[in-house]
């Protein structure tokens, strides 16, 4: 859609002094879009100029509207010499290109100069008038919404998943063009920054076209990266999941019964209606099944594999009975039983299994369709052959597959997707059927071997190769989808390593939106169902009217809010069951019987890259786990051999990462990993791998045994040492279990939220038995000083009062109360690989540092922790760490009391520390007398601050401030008062998909910021550290200003995609590039309050911290 | 050696303790040592390196803030550091706080870069780190330069341009006032007077004797100067020193004091009445000459408080005397020809009395 861009420049403030003689500035602004330029008048001799310009209008066509940023340049007018640049503002117009007509960008933008940083601010208004489609034949992607958020955005409902979308754009890097030799650093930086912005726009536009071709209207889990290849150019890559989103208000006819499902449910609505429909077709469901289904009927409301969205799913016309029997047909899919009762009605997957497809590798879903796919040829020979082999057996199911496609007009079945990849990390309930495990693929390539560097073909081919491999791996695990899919590269000179990771899974994408939209849900009575994991004799009937009512109240609770009363999770152990046949496991794995249903097989550990799904029941808390490996690598002798060296080394590196993860996991006494992120970095002489994840105890999986040390002890002394190690390991495991509330989990189901009650007793005995049968986990010790073990035990614990996680959702009984602080830590140091421990220490230290920094916020939870490791120079390691510190609250359950007392104690100690600090200060020496004053004043301030403080400090206030005993529950009234009184234009940033304590009212647009900053007076700005600190702060300030200008007050899914720092301390010069992205949002406090757009102010008590 | 090690939060949080140390002129190393001594390392179970890294982060932040603190409204407007207004105010307030011992030393010196060098001596004398002394000096100088030429109320000007609290703004106003009138404060004779004494006196003078005082009819000029008209009128007080007036005045005062003072004190006062009265009147008349204005504190001490103190008069004796001295004139009908002089007398004596009592350290 072409449009008219209208810009008005109102005023400036805090401009720098550009004219030494008058100490003032004669400023004017150039407004540029594409090639058109307008200028404001010169506002003479003012540091706070008022222009109040007319509306500058640009008529632009669709493409440049999306690609080009609006550029405003502030200059100082000089009569005799050239006009001096003060700085620039880039405004991304994409957020304005939606159908929402009232959108305006207006506000104070920091005037940013790549050489001097932020120099004053400019007040502007930008509007875009879009013309409605003039040309029906031209594909436009205007209006396709992008979300960095890797889940269904809150307030939306996903109607259709259209599939994986990717795009790749290549351009010359201005830094490497000849012209760079003659232009100023500023000009060069600006050219580059502009290019990045343009590439990002182009990328989004192209992806947008793809999505609209697929019939979608949004991209979620959008992830954009720049590969700075150097000589061969800049590659902008984007991947995401194309979906069709609807706003429930536009979507759902209000149900007469007031059951219009609560948002949470809506979002899960991508369910498996189709399955039902199409399973209905086979005439041959065995009587056994039917009877079983009736069994269901008598005890439970009808259910579908989708946990909670039932209210939408049953076909409206169908009387309850029918719908229930339908769900019974879906039973084979969702229940643990059908395996034994291999009835003909079981879904295709089962048939294949029963038909014992000779090759275990491929799931039946990979059908003929797939083999006709051109890229099958890319598959490595053995796998390729297996694929063809299996396709024969799969073809028998073709009809079934077709039935699916026919029925779902829009939703492409998973078999039809070229790459059944999903970049989201959390999914609607019912979407995931089984989780297989982590799949990853890596490939080492040479950049100087690209024939045609300006063209994207070569890179496209590379990625196709990688993705195909992932797909193949996924099938090996008996899965047909990859969840939490990410791609990542590392570049060192001419070597590029491409990595892709994801979680293989079986999913349920098919869903007929038509039926659910056309027909309102039949009755509220079907809102709830019992977990299918239970045996039928469960007497509880869950017709939860309260739930229905509360749902009807329509509070759009986000998925994350799983702790809220009406959103009690319904656990489903199905997800943990292995998707492959036990005897045809793709790799050696210890299978045991599921601890919950006792029917199907589960692996002893489960690794995933996704966020904890609601359906999986976990015990205790989550714990942060990180494996770090650093291997020296011979220095490059030339591209080819170097590449070989690296690719030979990679498997060992990965193996080591894996075994470290495994050891640590066992040491924690846990059995599952969520949010696993593996990052491989290649340097000149180092190869670094870091794997980060959140460990949990998954209830369905067996209790991990205490690792047993084994080794050849030749002497008595060695033997003693081994025993010593064994003792320490056992102690550590017990300690970890205690810390993570895992001591009393033997009863299979501990959480009161689980509806399972009856058979927990027999479960316990069974479980003990099964865990007793289990093979013990053995840690091989070569000698008693084995570095591995030493490092393992050296691993320090987080300080009291801290929890750390890298997932968005918090497993276990704690939930987040409020954001305290989003942080970025950039660390860079020389590193000489000496021992394993020194490399470990870097990370340990960094974590400790963060905890020390945030010590005054404890007890708190550090969430969304993201480590980025780079090897910028031969002997240098750079780590960027981002995350958010949140205050926590415990879900009121049986363990609550225990927690609150703990918390109380903790708080007291914290307070004690501060007090003694204060007194220590005042006792200080005689020079410190102002300090004394302040110390006392400070603490008074603290108290008052805390009283006014938001939820997060609530507990503190009560224990320390007002001395209220016992009751550590936060009082909500407080929060309200706070919200009303403290309105200010704060902008909250968070790497999470949500802001705890707030609900997202609107998404304003996806932002991708690229900043370049250079300094030629490094010493004057406080050295490398001063430079970086300032730059990161400036980046955040820019982000906040952009969000605020759209009327937003938060940015979720904040990510620092890139941080490239080049220093040249000898020349007193330094340059840095930072790329950040996220979704601008409007949030409002969760409590139903008259819509308050501004977020809380968090730091009325901040002077302490 | 760590090349880069920085922590940046979305909210700019100031560590109150470190800010205090920084303001007090502690280097990052000193601050680390200080914290080490206070046992932070053990309490938090962290290494010195971590504490030091935290200190450096905060110090870099302070360094960045310092540029904005030169002109506090900028700190309020800026967007780089997301902090709440309370905290901004607090940061500003603390930055502009000073040690009265240091300012006492600076007081009376010209606020020029040349005198900045002398901060070494000040630092040595007060045992306050040189950095802190320099900051305090620079603050004074900056505030002085900003408001010296401004119209309107001195305190209000300082409050709007530096966003300081009323209390602190008053202190700055006093300093600016003293500096602008170049009051002598550094003489050895005055060394027993504290900074607070001067602030009190200066504020009294601002309120009652300057252009912004209620009695002043022409508010056109600046707050930092004394009301010229008033000073001019003060010359008329000369007549009180005339022999007849003096004697009558003396009689009145002594009889007035009879019920309230001891005999001894009365005797002393009777003996010193002439000197005291002359001194008070001379000071009044001298205020018309800028040279004498500068010496007002010296004169007060030399001619009024010291003789009285050495004669053994207590503070309350002095207060009683000054009250009587002021009030009896009204009854004496000296100003029968110039009735407006009554107001002038009142305006002069009210402030003088308070100043004398403030500096009357017995």
Automatic annotation (TrEMBL), chain A:
Chain segments annotated as transmembrane: none
Residue stretches of biased makeup (Polar residues): 281-291
GO CC list: plasma membrane
MF annotations from Gene Ontology: calcium ion binding; calcium-dependent phospholipid binding
InterPro entries: C2_C2CD5, C2_dom, C2_domain_sf, C2CD5, C2CD5_C, C2CD5_YbjQ-like_dom, C2CD5_YbjQ-rel_dom
GO annotation terms (biological process): intracellular protein transmembrane transport; positive regulation of D-glucose transmembrane transport; positive regulation of protein targeting to membrane; positive regulation of vesicle fusion; protein localization to plasma membrane
Name recorded for this polypeptide: C2 domain-containing protein
UniProtKB/TrEMBL annotation, chain B:
This protein's GO CC annotations: nucleus
Pfam families: FIBP
Name of the protein: Acidic fibroblast growth factor intracellular-binding protein
InterPro entries reported for this sequence: FIBP (IPR008614)
């Amino acid at each position: 859609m072409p449009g008219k861009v209208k810009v008005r420049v109102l005023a400036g403030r805090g401009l720098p002094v550009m004219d030494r003689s008058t100490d003032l500035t004669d400023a004017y602004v150039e407004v540029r879009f594409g090639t058109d330029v307008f200028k404001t008048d010169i506002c003479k001799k003012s540091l706070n100029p008022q222009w109040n310009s007319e509306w500058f209008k640009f008529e632009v066509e669709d493409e440049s509207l999306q690609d080009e940023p609006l550029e405003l340049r502030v200059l100082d007018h000089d009569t005799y010499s050239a006009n001096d640049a003060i700085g620039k503002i880039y405004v991304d117009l994409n957020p304005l290109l939606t159908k929402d007509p009232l959108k305006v960008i207006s506000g104070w933008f920091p005037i940013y100069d790549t050489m001097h940083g932020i120099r004053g601010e400019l007040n502007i208004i930008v509007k875009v008038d879009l013309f409605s489609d003039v040309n029906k034949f031209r594909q436009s992607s205007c209006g396709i919404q992008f979300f960095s958020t890797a889940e269904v955005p809150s307030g939306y409902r996903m109607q259709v998943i259209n599939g994986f979308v990717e795009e790749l754009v290549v351009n010359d890097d201005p830094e490497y063009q000849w012209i760079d030799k003659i232009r100023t650093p500023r000009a060069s930086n600006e050219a580059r920054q502009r290019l990045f912005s343009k590439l990002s726009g182009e990328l989004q536009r192209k992806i947008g076209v793809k999505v609209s071709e697929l019939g979608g209207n949004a991209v979620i889990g959008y992830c954009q990266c720049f590969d700075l290849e150097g000589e061969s150019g800049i590659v902008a890559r984007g991947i995401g999941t194309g979906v069709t989103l609807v706003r429930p208000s536009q979507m759902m006819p209000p149900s007469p019964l007031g059951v219009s499902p609560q948002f949470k449910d809506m979002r899960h609505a991508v369910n498996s209606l189709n399955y039902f429909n199409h399973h209905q077709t086979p005439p041959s469901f065995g009587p056994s099944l039917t009877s079983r289904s009736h069994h269901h009927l008598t005890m439970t409301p009808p259910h579908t594999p989708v946990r909670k969205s039932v209210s939408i799913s049953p076909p409206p016309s169908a009387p309850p009975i029918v719908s229930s029997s339908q769900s019974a047909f879906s039973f084979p899919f969702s229940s643990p039983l059908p395996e034994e009762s291999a009835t003909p009605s079981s879904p295709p997957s089962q048939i294949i299994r029963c038909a014992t497809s000779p090759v275990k590798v491929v799931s039946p879903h990979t059908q003929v369709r797939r083999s006709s796919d051109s890229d099958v040829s890319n598959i490595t020979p053995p796998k390729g052959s297996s694929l063809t082999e299996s396709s024969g057996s799969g073809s028998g199911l073709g009809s079934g597959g077709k039935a699916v496609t026919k029925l779902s007009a829009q939703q492409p079945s998973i078999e039809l997707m070229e790459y059944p990849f999903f970049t989201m990390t959390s999914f609607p309930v019912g979407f995931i059927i089984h989780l297989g495990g982590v799949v990853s693929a890596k490939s080492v390539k040479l950049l100087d071997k690209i024939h045609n560097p300006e063209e994207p073909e070569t890179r496209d081919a590379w990625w196709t190769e990688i993705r195909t491999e992932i797909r193949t791996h996924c099938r090996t695990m008996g899965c047909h989808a990859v969840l939490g899919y990410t791609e990542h590269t590392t570049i060192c000179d001419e070597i590029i390593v491409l990595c892709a990771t994801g979680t293989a899974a079986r999913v349920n994408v098919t869903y007929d939106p038509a039926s659910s939209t056309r027909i309102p849900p039949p009755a509220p009575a079907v809102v709830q169902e019992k977990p299918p994991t239970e045996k039928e004799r469960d007497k509880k009937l869950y017709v939860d009217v309260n739930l229905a009512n509360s749902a009807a109240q329509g509070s759009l609770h986000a998925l994350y809010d799983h702790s809220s009363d009406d959103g009690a999770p319904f656990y489903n152990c199905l997800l943990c069951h292995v998707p492959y046949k036990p005897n045809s496991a793709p790799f050696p794995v210890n299978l045991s019987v599921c601890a919950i249903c006792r029917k199907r097989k589960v692996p002893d550990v489960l690794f995933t890259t996704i966020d904890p799904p609601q359906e999986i029941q976990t015990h205790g808390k989550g714990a942060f786990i990180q494996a770090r490996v650093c291997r020296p690598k011979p220095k490059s002798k030339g591209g080819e051999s170097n590449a070989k060296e690296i690719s030979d080394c990679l498997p060992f590196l990965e193996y080591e990462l894996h075994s470290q993860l495994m050891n640590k996991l066992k040491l924690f006494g846990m059995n599952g990993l969520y949010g696993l992120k593996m990052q491989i970095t290649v340097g000149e002489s180092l190869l670094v791998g870091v794997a980060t994840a959140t460990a949990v105890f998954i209830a369905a999986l067996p209790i991990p045994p205490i690792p047993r040390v084994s080794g050849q002890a030749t002497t008595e002394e060695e033997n003693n040492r081994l025993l010593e190690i064994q003792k320490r390991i056992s102690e550590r495991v017990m300690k970890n279990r205690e810390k993570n509330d895992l001591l009393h989990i033997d009863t299979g189901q501990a959480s009161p939220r689980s509806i399972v009650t009856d058979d927990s007793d027999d479960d316990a005995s069974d479980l003990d038995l099964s865990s007793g049968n289990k093979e013990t986990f053995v840690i091989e010790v070569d000698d008693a000083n084995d570095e591995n073990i030493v490092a393992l035990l050296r691993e320090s614990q987080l300080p009291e009062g801290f929890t750390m996680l890298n997932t968005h959702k918090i497993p276990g009984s704690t939930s987040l109360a409020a954001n305290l602080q989003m942080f970025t830590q950039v660390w860079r140091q020389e590193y000489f690989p000496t021992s394993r421990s020194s490399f470990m220490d870097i990370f340990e230290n960094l974590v400790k540092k963060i905890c020390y920094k945030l010590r005054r916020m404890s007890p708190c939870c550090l969430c969304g922790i993201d480590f980025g490791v780079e090897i910028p120079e031969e002997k240098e390691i750079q780590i960027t760490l981002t995350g958010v510190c949140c205050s926590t609250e415990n879900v009121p359950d049986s363990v609550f009391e225990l927690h609150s007392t703990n918390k109380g104690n903790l708080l007291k100690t914290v307070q004690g520390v501060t007090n003694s600090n204060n007194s220590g200060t005042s006792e200080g020496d005689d020079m410190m007398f102002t300090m004394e004053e302040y110390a006392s004043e400070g603490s008074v301030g603290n108290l008052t601050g805390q009283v006014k403080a938001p939820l997060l400090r609530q507990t503190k206030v009560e224990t320390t401030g007002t001395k209220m005993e016992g009751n550590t529950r936060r009082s909500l009234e407080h929060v309200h008062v706070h919200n009303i009184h403290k309105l200010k234009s704060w902008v909250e940033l968070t790497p999470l998909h949500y802001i705890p304590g707030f609900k997202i009212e609107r998404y304003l647009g996806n932002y991708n910021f690229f900043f370049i900053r250079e300094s030629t007076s490094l010493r004057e700005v406080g050295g490398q550290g001063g430079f970086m600190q300032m730059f990161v702060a400036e980046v955040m300030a820019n982000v906040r200003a952009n969000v605020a200008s759209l009327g937003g007050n938060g940015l979720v899914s904040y990510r620092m995609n890139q941080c490239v720092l080049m220093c040249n301390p000898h020349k007193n010069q330094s340059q840095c590039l930072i790329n950040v992205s996220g979704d601008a949002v409007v949030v409002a406090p969760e409590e139903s309050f008259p819509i308050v757009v501004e977020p809380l102010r968090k730091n009325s008590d901040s002077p302490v911290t | 050696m760590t090349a880069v090690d920085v922590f940046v939060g979305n909210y700019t949080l100031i560590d109150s303790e470190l800010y205090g140390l920084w303001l007090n002129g502690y280097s990052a190393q000193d601050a680390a040592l200080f914290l080490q001594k206070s046992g932070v390392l053990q309490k938090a179970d962290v290494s010195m390196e971590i504490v030091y890294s935290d200190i450096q982060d905060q110090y870099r932040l302070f360094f960045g803030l310092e540029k904005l603190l030169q002109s506090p409204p900028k700190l309020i407007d800026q967007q780089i550091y997301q902090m709440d207004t309370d905290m901004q105010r607090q940061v500003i307030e603390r930055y502009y706080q000073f040690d009265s011992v240091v300012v006492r030393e600076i007081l009376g010196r010209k606020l020029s870069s040349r005198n900045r060098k002398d901060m070494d001596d000040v630092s040595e004398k007060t045992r306050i780190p040189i950095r802190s002394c320099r900051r305090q000096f620079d603050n004074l100088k900056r505030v002085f330069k900003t408001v010296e030429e401004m119209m309107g109320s001195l305190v209000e000007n300082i409050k709007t341009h530096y966003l300081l609290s009323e209390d602190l703004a008053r202190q700055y106003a006093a300093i600016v006032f003293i500096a602008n009138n170049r009051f002598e404060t550094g003489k050895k004779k005055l060394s027993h007077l504290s900074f607070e004494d001067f602030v009190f006196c200066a504020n009294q003078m601002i309120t009652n004797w300057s252009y912004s005082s209620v009695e002043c009819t022409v508010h056109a000029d600046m707050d930092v100067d004394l009301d010229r008209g008033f000073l001019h009128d003060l010359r008329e007080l000369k007549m009180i020193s005339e022999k007849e007036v003096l004697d009558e005045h003396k009689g009145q005062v002594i009889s007035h004091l009879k019920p309230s003072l001891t005999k001894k004190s009365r005797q002393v006062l009777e003996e010193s009445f002439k000197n005291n009265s002359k001194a008070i009147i001379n000071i009044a008349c001298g205020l018309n000459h800028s040279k004498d204005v500068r010496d007002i504190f010296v004169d007060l001490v030399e001619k009024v408080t010291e003789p009285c103190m050495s004669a053994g008069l207590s503070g309350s004796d002095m207060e009683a005397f000054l009250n009587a001295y002021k009030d009896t004139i009204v009854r004496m009908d000296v100003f029968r020809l110039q009735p407006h002089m009554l107001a002038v007398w009142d305006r002069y004596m009210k402030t003088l009395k308070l100043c004398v009592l403030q500096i009357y350290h017995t």
